[in-house]
Amino acid sequence: MADVLIRRGVAGLPSVSRSDVPGNYPYEAIRVVKLLRAAGLTVEFEDEKPDRTYLTHDAAEFWLPIIEFARDVGKETLIATLTGLVSSYTTTKILRRGDSSGEEVTVPSPVLHVE
Q1: Helix (H, G, I), strand (E, B), or coil: what is residue 86?
Q2: pTM above 0.90, yes or no
């Protein structure tokens, strides 16, 4: 009888069946078993070695699209803000110099192409 029994199933992946053959185990179970055996415990898996598969789920599958979207939105927001600040600054400088003849200065909206 073993001190520790590793049961099949992968936490966080409800789509992975616990009753499939071969049994699905988290990839990290290998490391846990090594640590437990190094501590002097006897450890067994619910399935024999040929009947086991090790699965892992990567956070990159979820976070990379979000990071990519945030990067693009952040870049566009920064460019729009800087363009607005430069436009406002130049308009203010022109009005302070007194180069205008009293008429209202209209600065066209900046068109900026970034690839």
Answers
A1: helix
A2: no
